[in-house]
Amino acid sequence: MGLLPDEAKVLPPPGIVNRNSVWFGLCGWATAMLHNSLNRRPALKAGVHRQALFITVGWFIGYHLTKYENYKYATLDRDMNEYIRLHPNEFPEKERKTFAEIVEPFHPIR
């Protein structure tokens, strides 16, 4: 089961590169750099394997947070559309206007 219920499996998966994955991957890398600095090691050269591990863990967390975020937004959209469908009197159909009816006529000054 995990974080997401079974109904979340019908949603399309997010892209591998998304804002949360990149952000958490960079936060993982910064955490490894900070850990090296606090232990008085060379920040970039020491523990490259640990840097790669922290980036991977951050990327994984960001990917799954994006899946959870997409699920939450999908449930909100579903509930909102269901409410609109059940209460049509609160959401009357608006009169359609063409673009020409909205824009004022243009008269160039010469």
From TrEMBL:
- Could you tell me which InterPro entries the record lists for this protein? NDUC2
Stated membrane topology is: Single-pass membrane protein
Give GO BP annotations, semicolon-separated.
Answer: mitochondrial electron transport, NADH to ubiquinone
GO CC annotations, alphabetized: mitochondrial inner membrane
Q: Where in the cell is it found?
A: Mitochondrion inner membrane
Q: Name where it mostly resides.
A: mitochondrion
Record carries keyword ATP-binding: no
Q: Which UniProt keywords apply?
A: Electron transport, Membrane, Mitochondrion, Mitochondrion inner membrane, Respiratory chain, Transmembrane, Transmembrane helix, Transport
Family indicated by similarity:
Belongs to the complex I NDUFC2 subunit family.
The protein's job, in short, is:
Accessory subunit of the mitochondrial membrane respiratory chain NADH dehydrogenase (Complex I), that is believed not to be involved in catalysis. Complex I functions in the transfer of electrons from NADH to the respiratory chain. The immediate electron acceptor for the enzyme is believed to be ubiquinone.
What name goes with this protein? NADH dehydrogenase [ubiquinone] 1 subunit C2
Could you tell me which species this protein originates from? Cirrhinus molitorella
Lineage runs: Eukaryota, Metazoa, Chordata, Craniata, Vertebrata
